[in-house]
Each structure stands twice: as C-alpha cells, then as structure tokens.
Specification:
single chain, alpha+beta, Glutaredoxin, 2 domains, 5-stranded mixed beta sheet, two-stranded antiparallel sheet, 7 helices, about 25% strand, globular
C-alpha cells in the first residue's frame, strides 16, 4: 500500500529510470503519466451508471439503453478536426451501426450550447452529453493528465466504450482512428 502512495507522489526527472528509496521502488513522472493515459475500466466490468442530460436538456441514463448495445464515445473538444472526423465517421455509418443493434452517444466537457452547435452543424443523429462537471468522464477514467508539446494539463482521453445490453463493458477502444472509427468498431463484431 505504501509503495502505491509513493508512486503517485514521487516524480523523478528521468523518464526511464526507476528509483529506490528506503526499499521502495518509484516510477518517474513521465512513466506515471503514460500509465494514466488509459481508462481503468476493461471488458467485463460493470459500466458506471450515469443520470444526466443531453445537449437539448433531455434526460439520459445508462438504464435507458438496457437491451441495446451502447457506443459511448468521448472526444476532447467539439468542433476540432479530430473530434469532428470521429463524430462524422460515426454519423456516416449510423445506419449500418443501428442495423447491427448499436445506439450511439457522444460525451465531452463542452457546454450544452457548444454541443448543440456541433450537433446542428454536422447533423448528428445521436445525442451528445455536455459533462461540464466531468463526473461521468472521471467515473469512466477518461479525464486526467495529458501531455502535448511538453505541456502537461488535464483533459479528455479519446476513448470509446461498447456497453452490452446488461450494462457491462464489452469493448474499450483507446487507440481510436478518428477517420475510421465506425469501421474499427464494426470489425470487432464481424
């Protein structure tokens, strides 16, 4: 237990070296950040419940999707190129995905106005969750430390969960191909 505590709070400047102090082995800061890039949830885990609203203020709960396969995809920021590519790819394959029994919901930390503009501009047929408080993002383990151009900050890790009809996580996609995401999902179900 003590070792985990120190691993979280000790940061070494060397990204490869493991340091031992008082018999405890510590990870470096960069190594620790790399381990935090992915969700703690895995296939077989019960999906964290949520009770929220979509971009229009309509109620959305995980239980609303009981009996259906839910694709819950997270994206860092509406209207940005990668996020737009990902959401548009799912939109373009919406009919094919729904015919295979999937329902789609997107989530980001953007507010409802931005989510509404995003949905209207690209005519998405699925709801978008504005999780400005980041409660759902944190519950799914997709909000946390990121690094870009040497700058560290907290943000959303682009991740997609496929949740089965009973609310159990079936698939987790952490290496999302934004321009081919629907194909990525469908390939797992052929």
């Amino acid at each position: 237990m003590a070792q985990s505590f120190f691993q979280v709070y000790y940061f070494s400047p060397n990204p490869i070296k493991k340091t031992t102090i008082f018999g405890f082995q510590f990870q470096t800061k960069r190594k620790l950040l790399n381990t935090l890039n992915m969700t703690h949830l895995k296939p077989g885990d019960k999906a964290p419940d949520f009770n929220t609203v979509d971009e229009l203020g309509n109620s959305l709960k995980l239980s609303d999707f009981a009996g259906k396969k839910l694709i819950l995809f997270s994206y860092p920021k509406a209207m940005t190129p990668g996020c737009t590519n990902e959401a548009c790819n799912l939109r373009d394959h919406y009919k094919e995905l729904t015919e295979k029994g999937f329902t789609i919901v997107g989530i980001s930390a953007d507010d409802s106005k931005k989510q509404q503009r995003f949905k209207d501009k690209y005519e998405f047929p699925f709801p978008l969750i504005p999780d400005t408080e980041k409660d759902i993002l944190k519950a799914y383990g997709i909000w946390g430390p990121k690094k870009l151009y040497g700058r560290e900050y907290d943000g959303i890790h682009r991740t997609t969960f496929v949740i089965d009809e009973q609310g159990v996580i079936e698939k987790v996609f952490t290496k999302v191909k934004t321009k081919e995401h629907a194909e990525q999902i469908l390939a797992e179900y052929e």
